[in-house]
Design goal:
Number of strands: 4
Structural class: mainly alpha
Radius of gyration: 19 Å
Shape: globular
Order of helices and strands: HHEEEEHHHHHHHHH
Oligomer: single chain
Strand content: 5-15%
Length: 257
C-alpha cells in the first residue's frame, strides 16, 4: 500500500518551477497517472479483498489549501473494507489499535455516518476517537473537503468548517511559532476565504505576528499573501498557488509590515 505524500512548500516550488520550465513534462502529464490492483487484508475482521490503488502520478502545482494539482487523485484513495467500511489509512496497526478501531467501526454510529459521508471523513472520525492531535484531525478533514469536491459537493463547506475548528484547537495549544503552527494558521485563514468569510480573513491576518512569519517562514508568508489578495477581491473559489515570491510585499505582507 502507498501512503499519502506530505508536500512541503519547498517541494511545491520545485514542482511548479519544473512544470513551467518544461512544456514536454506538461504534455506528458495526461499519461502520467497509473493505477494497479492489490490484495488488502482488512485489520478489522481479517477479510481479504482486491483494491485499486494509485500508482504513478504527475503533480504540476498546488492550490492555496495545499491540494496537489496534476494527473493524480487527491486525496490519495485508500482501500475500504467491504464488510464493515473501515478505511485502511495505514499499512500497520498495533493489536491495541485494532481492538480500539474495531469497537469504533462496528458501532451503530459509525455505520450511520458511513451512509452519508466520505472516506476521509470516516478516517477523521476514527482518528478523533483514537485521540489523534488536532493538527492531524484538521489535515484529515481538509483532505475530506478535497474528496467531497469530487464525490459529494454538498459536503465541502461542512468539512472545511470541521477542518477550521480542528486547526483553531491546535492553534490554541502549546506549539506557537512552529512551522506546524504557522501552517495551521495559514490554512485556517484559507478555510475562512473558501467559506466566503472575508472579514474573518482580514481579522485573523491582522492579529498574526507577521514579522515573525516573514523572517522564519517566508514561503508561508507568500501563501498567506495570495490568500489575502483573493479575499480582498471577494473571491471564495479554490485558487492555484502562484510561484512563491512573485507577489511578495505587494498587499500588506511585505518587508514594510
Amino acid at each position: 500500500m502507498h501512503h499519502t505524500r506530505r508536500h512541503s512548500l519547498k517541494s511545491v516550488v520545485l514542482a511548479i518551477a519544473t512544470a513551467v520550465a518544461s512544456s514536454s513534462s506538461m504534455m506528458s502529464a495526461a499519461n502520467a497517472f497509473t493505477s494497479y490492483q492489490t490484495v488488502v487484508t482488512c485489520p478489522v475482521g481479517g477479510q481479504s479483498f482486491t483494491a485499486t490503488m494509485m500508482g504513478s502520478f504527475f503533480q504540476s502545482g498546488m492550490r492555496l489549501d495545499f491540494k496537489p494539482i496534476g494527473a493524480l487523485i487527491a486525496p490519495y484513495p485508500y482501500p475500504v473494507c467491504p464488510a464493515n467500511g473501515f478505511v485502511v489509512y495505514r499499512d500497520n496497526f498495533s493489536d491495541a489499535e485494532i481492538d480500539a478501531i474495531s469497537a469504533i467501526v462496528l458501532s451503530d454510529d459509525y455505520r450511520a455516518q458511513r451512509t452519508h459521508n466520505t472516506d476521509y471523513f470516516m478516517i477523521a472520525y476514527v482518528k478523533e476517537r483514537l485521540g489523534a492531535d488536532s493538527y492531524e484531525i484538521g489535515s484529515t478533514y481538509l483532505r475530506a473537503s478535497w474528496e467531497a469536491e469530487r464525490v459529494a459537493p454538498d459536503l465541502v463547506d461542512r468539512y472545511r468548517k470541521f477542518a477550521l475548528e480542528a486547526f483553531d484547537k491546535f492553534l490554541n495549544g502549546k506549539e506557537t511559532g512552529t512551522e506546524k503552527w504557522w501552517t495551521a494558521a495559514v490554512l485556517a485563514v484559507e478555510m475562512h476565504r473558501l467559506l466566503g468569510e472575508f472579514k474573518a480573513v482580514q481579522l485573523r491576518t491582522s492579529v498574526l505576528p507577521l514579522s515573525e512569519l516573514r523572517t522564519t517562514y517566508p514561503d508561508l508568508r507568500d501563501v498567506l499573501a495570495q490568500i489575502r489578495m483573493h479575499a480582498n477581491q471577494l473571491n471564495s473559489s479554490p485558487e492555484e498557488m502562484r510561484p512563491l515570491g512573485v507577489i511578495r510585499g505587494t498587499i500588506g505582507l511585505g518587508p514594510s509590515n
